[in-house]
Amino acid sequence: MANSADVFIGIDVHKDTLEVCIDGRDEHWECRNDTAGIDELLTTLEALSPTLVVVEASGGYERRLVADGHAAGLPVVVVNPTRVRRMAEAFGIIAKTDTIDAYVIARFAERVRPPVREPQSAEQQHLNALVTRRRQLLEIRTAEKNRLSTCPDLIRIDIEEHLIWLNSRIELLEDEINDMLANNPSWRERTALVSTVPGIGPVTAATLMAELPELGTLNRQKIAALAGLAPYNRDSGPRTKRRRIFGGRASVRCVLYMAALSATRCNPVIRRFYQRLTDKGKPSKVALTACMRKLLVIVNAMVRKQESWSYAPA
Question: What residues contact 139, with CB distance under 8 A and at least 6 apart?
Fold first, then answer.
């Protein structure tokens, strides 16, 4: 039960505005989602001494608020909108407006009380931004290469020049990422450990450092769930449905897919595991997903134990 002095706040985030609601009170208001608006909001929240401030993830529009809230010492938590929406439906709240959303998020904060996590350091955010930007440029480069095969001749030079620029920018980003990993003792040590695993290359290692900083701190079930590689049951009575993975960090999952694909050929442990699953009749994609999970669990254990890859043939 919530103490009468506890204050739970829900914030619905939009590009230009923030809708704020205090659970259990008839108080809600809107403010601007910019520097001045966030500063004013944080001043108000600090005076309330909230027990928890829950912010719904909104494609990055919540980042400034969350970063400034952590800097101000407020217990700010970012949650998945799907969880909040399903709670609204459980309460019978079908209508959806900004005010209603903020109210439901505040109720979610009071009922669920998601744990407050340690905020990322500025250096971690910097590395994450570089890795994300590299991935974005790779997607643009792929799209431009696809256009090159069908474009009119008068556009070809423009696309080729753009590809040259993209290649140079990607190289610069990779150099900067490598420098950051090399200059940080913790990252340098973990990258060296992870890179000893057959199938894991520099891109996978850098992505794990940037976008899975929890590596080595969680158990096998939680790290798999965080990457979206935990199979969930879908059973009801006598009916048993196929297990499926859901959610998690898509960018981590993408690099693990390529790493597992490589590992099924060059990593003896993963190759044998993959072969055993396919021999049992598992579809290749299901077997590969299981290999992704096994690879991540192995890497997680290596980082936790500070041990490099070793394999003794049977």
Answer: none
Quote the domain boundaries for residue 284. 196-314
Nearest 5°: the CA angle 256, 208, 115 is 110
274 and 209: one domain? yes
Q: What strand order describes the sheet that includes 76-79?
A: 27-32, 17-22, 8-13, 52-56, 76-79
**What are the tokens at 249?**
């960090």
Residue type, 221: Q
Q: Identify whether 161 is part of a domain.
A: yes
Please write the tens of the pLDDT for every residue from 82-129: 889 988 888 888 888 888 889 999 999 999 999 888 888 889 989 999
28 Cβ contact list (under 8 Å, min separation 6): 19, 20, 21, 22, 99, 102, 103
Nearest-5° Cα angle at 177, 174 to 182:
125
Q: Which domain-ending residue is among 112, 147, 170? A: 112
pLDDT at 1 over 50: no
8 Å CB contact between 223 and 237:
no
Amino acid at 214: E
Q: Are residues 39 and 59 in the same domain?
A: yes
Pairing of strands 231-232, 235-236: unpaired
177/92 same-domain check: no
Instruction: Tell me how far apart the alpha carbons of residues 216 and 194 are, in angstroms, rounded to a whole number.
Output: 11
Quick check: is 3 in a domain? no
* pTM (two decimals): 0.81
